[in-house]
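Sample intake sheet
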Amino acid sequence: MIEVHLGDITRLQVDVIVNAANRHLSGGGGVDGAIHRAAGPELSEACRAIGGCPVGEVRATPAFSLPAKRIYHTVGPVWRGGNLGEPELLSSCYRHCLSLARREGMKSIAFPAISCGVYDYPPELAVEIAVDQVQDHLDREAPPEQIIFCCFDARMADLYRLQLEAVVRR
């Protein structure tokens, strides 16, 4: 089941919260900073121990003070016009997170709008990729059973809802 949620991803009671991280996993602004603040100082220590994450990949940590079990840190691409592999890298973020969730037996996962903040990915394009990757995964694999697109504002939530409706009509 795919859902769109408007609100704070750090408050969701799911198995996995996905963090739109930077390459150093050092926390920052937006959802990354919010997750680091809500999870507590242990998250920064765990991320330092990992040492970083390449664009398009994922690294996992415990969720510490969050209501989730795990945090999957994925690094989305910075938008530079779309001709430098950005769509493939963003797709890879979703595929790696969903694959890891399946391998770890996680039943629910919440995604933010990866790369849509300071990385300037056009929201309409990012949402299309996100929904397509999730739907493709669900068509081929079983878990996770619940996938949430967690949006901080109503405009982004509307984009996800419209894209999900378009997928259903195909």
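Comment: The first helix runs from residue 30 to 39. The CA atoms of residues 124 and 159 lie 7 Å apart.
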